[in-house]
Amino acid sequence: MNKAARGNQAEITDGDFVYRLVSEKEEYEQGDQVQVYGELEYIGEEDEITIGHAASAFYFPMKELTRDYNISYAMNEPYITTKLKKGKPLREYYKIGGGYDSRDDKKFKDFIHSLKDGFPGGRYVVYGSADFVIDSMSQGASQSGSNGEEPKRYKIQAEIEFSVSEEKE
Question: Residue 30 phi/psi, 5° resolution?
């Protein structure tokens, strides 16, 4: 079994947090809804902790390996806080992303447009991450910035892979 080290799920622990990146299947049929999600679980000493992040703590940029296309994942960047209760994972599903600009070629633009109808056949890598800080107002933050230092920033990254079968004639 010498296939890439990426499976359809990954789990990374960083300090008091566990980040999971999961594709519910290794292979989807063309037209299936691709189900990919990120999960963040707090496993530290407190009963709960407040984290701060952009519109979401989760990012899901991808790359389609057959065509070598990057599928970006943009998001608004307000500062939002979320309470994590110890042992209760926060889960969020991937929503269709992707964008292009006027310099991109038509094949790439067509590919990005086609994503809303389901992923075209191919092999996809998800470069997922959870990107957040410990909110300075929460308890348990005393260790991370009450004396004017920057709050501890986490960027926990993992990669998974899934494929979509080509349409059968």
Answer: -60, 135
Rounded to 5 degrees, what are φ and ψ at 2?
Answer: -105, 30
- To the nearest whole percent, how much of the chain has pLDDT over 70? 88
Contacts of 152 (CB under 8 A, 6+ apart): 133, 134, 144, 145
Q: How far apart are CA 95 and CA 104, in angstroms?
A: 22
| Amino acid occupying residue 166 | E
The CB-side HSE value for 156 (13 A sphere, CA atoms) comes to 25
Domains present along the chain, CATH in parentheses: 9-164 (2.60.40.10)
pLDDT, tens only, 105-156: 999 999 998 888 889 999 999 999 999 999 887 655 444 444 556 778 999 9
